[in-house]
Amino acid sequence: MKKIRIIVGCICLMSLIVGGIYFYKTQENIDTEGPVLQSASDAITVSIQDTEKELIEGITAIDDRDGNVSDNILIENIEKKEDGADNEFLVTYVAFDNANNSGKLTRTLYYEDYRQTHFAITQPLRFPENQQLSLFEYFQADDCIDGDISPFITLEGDEEILEEPQKGIYDCKLSITNSVGDITELPFQVEIYEDGYEERTFRPQVVLTEYIVYLKQGENLDANAYLDRVEDKGVYLLDFNSVDANGEDTESSEQTSKRATANRVSISQIEIDSNVDVNTPGIYSVVYSYTSEETGYNCNTNLIVVVE
Known about the structure:
- The chain is of the alpha+beta class.
- Helices cover 16% and strands 41% of the residues.
- The protein has three domains: 36-111, Immunoglobulins (Immunoglobulin-like, Sandwich), CATH 2.60.40; 115-195, Immunoglobulins (Immunoglobulin-like, Sandwich), CATH 2.60.40; 202-308, Sandwich (Immunoglobulin-like).
- A four-stranded mixed beta sheet has the order 2-7-6-5.
């Protein structure tokens, strides 16, 4: 009986040894290491129109078992580089071997033709009091990578203007984040006026072709180029021919009167006040002022100018 126990014990011991060796060999053959990615350079400069293939150019992936697996390289993520230049991003690449192990590499990406999201404003931000506003209706957002991303605009500002705004000037801010994590913000003001018969009947309005424009640093600003018409108890076209090279009105008072009768307003009747410095990036404003010769009522229209 004792011999049988010894034999059984030896068999169990041998089984454990053989099992241990088998397990070790099996584990030894399991591939747990991902491929190693290498880059020909630490940074790459491309256009936003370039394909993923062109963004991967210069990256290789070598696996210690499967060899060259560069054909498996993918772009995992592109995100804005914190505290980097406006066109500076981080691109992360990933590659897989045959055992589905992954390796990653990150390098700097420069978009040579990148710009931040541009906003558009569809009308003057001036509204009568005691009415609910949906300010999102008056803004659009165009991104050079994602296209129209208007539905993702967020709005910050005084809560009162989002409920039943009272007469006054309100400071607000638009914000949007595109697919590469770049945040664009735009401060703006909304005017709420006291509604009434005289306001609706006699207050004129300077209508612009655009209410926000973007200029490259150093680009000239022609404020007159954004004037469309004047609405003053009717629609008045703007007469640019009655102004000389210095912006002075060349017509007599009699000619001015005839022009008004013909529904034309001289450009010289609109005062323009601008704080734009085209040499310094920032957000500026141009204010167009007009006073009706017939009613004496005046108005201001604001153009936001972003120098990039």
